[in-house]
Fold this protein.
Amino acid sequence: MSLIVVGSMAFDAIETPFGKSDKIVGGAATYIAWSASNFTQPINQISVVGGDFPQEELDALKARGVNLEGVQIKKDEKSFFWSGKYHMDMNTRDTIETQLNVLGTFQPVVPESFQNADFLMLGNLLPAVQMSVIEQMKVRPKLIVLDTMNFWMETAMPDLEKVLKHVDVLMVNDSEARQLSAQFSLVKAAKEIMKMGPKYLIIKKGEHGALLFHGDQVFFAPALPLEEVFDPTGAGDTFAGGFIGHIARTKDISFENMKTAIIVGSAMASFCVEKFGTLRLTEISKQDIDDRIQEFVQLVNFDIALV
Amino acid sequence: MSLIVVGSMAFDAIETPFGKSDKIVGGAATYIAWSASNFTQPINQISVVGGDFPQEELDALKARGVNLEGVQIKKDEKSFFWSGKYHMDMNTRDTIETQLNVLGTFQPVVPESFQNADFLMLGNLLPAVQMSVIEQMKVRPKLIVLDTMNFWMETAMPDLEKVLKHVDVLMVNDSEARQLSAQFSLVKAAKEIMKMGPKYLIIKKGEHGALLFHGDQVFFAPALPLEEVFDPTGAGDTFAGGFIGHIARTKDISFENMKTAIIVGSAMASFCVEKFGTLRLTEISKQDIDDRIQEFVQLVNFDIALV
């Protein structure tokens, strides 16, 4: 069993300058699973949902090669719910409402069949829950990737600091990198954060692309310039899914291969934002993905002949 | 005579979160000349200064291969002066004071020896002045590049619209592209702007890099992630200088070569921001530039093997 994905499976209600969604299926682990399953199967999913989570969504994920043995279903409770509103630049958003529901008491259990996974993707979630999954692994995975957000820096920093000591790759966005490090320069921020545990740091900059840091090395991947960013919800999780999916497929955790994984993640994220929720991710084909990755190659390809 | 550079030569007083400069030499054409002269000489400079502009600065430019025959010196008047203050993100700034001085009545004259230039770089300046230079050219240059700013969109839009019809490449920053096109999406903005005249559009995004649009093609160049952005003044002009300098050196105005020119421009801009004013540009060697360009190659270089 190769890849474990941990994170929320939930409901979102989203408002953007271009429209408003109903209460739709979302959650970090949902996006990661849809994205990563294009590259590797099964996805060994660890999450928790309430009785209100649609069976057809679970069926669709199962059909996609997602092993739901680690997903707890609490029939008499409600799934996590988030509603938010994006501003015109689509890089900033306001949270309108958060209902923790089942997530408030979530105790993850790693099924026996998930042991010996090579790759562990810890989607954005309480740091203590992320730590619990690491502690339950009898053999340390070859690569542990963790995504987190500013909310945990404000409410659970000691737990976050603890789990950071155990992960290989941290993913945050630019403002979170600044908050976590108390440095404005992202180069300085990266140095500080890599002292906290992660040997690799990915800083997501939304429409401005992503940076990968490792020691003194740095790699930059652009975001595809899009006519429309319809809904950015889940773009970071979709990026994470493409990243870990590529790593799990190639079984190569070198810095060089992480660069490629970031391009794959960026390509997946560029699909995610084209429609509300996970919809676009459920539609795309392997050919669509290959074509999109080629667009990234063209976007940054240049020849240099020195003076 | 191959390259003409038009723009201000002036004084700036700059305040950043990291420090405050005295009244120092600046101006678009000053930065462009320092930058472009690394790649091609002579630089045929068209500008205007007052009697207060330092002779040693003119001498330094001359020693650098800048032909000052087109620079008017109005002994009894004062040079253009700008003072401004940058905010923490270094992408936004407030103008504290602007004194047009000699620039208010500037009537550029293209010297006979500048005729038949292949390349014309119109640095940020009144659109009517930029137009006057184009009109004085007996033979249209092979490539006309124009830089402008939001100020002219607000105060001289009809003149700007007129000159845009005559240029090949327009350079603006992202907020100016949005203002000029009334489109938020930069992809849509580019389409609108290319209808206004320019066949090529470069959108500068500061620390987020630069985009080159041409027809349906797009190229993205990153900015180098820097520990310190000490002073961004002149970075856009320095970028323009590297861009046109590379084009003039290679005499190749293809889209492919413009990509390389943008990398060269980005490398030059990354030096500019390291110290106040033009100081860093006067220090760097060919080896420094070659090394910096190689950093850009490394920054975006990746291998893709499709799924």
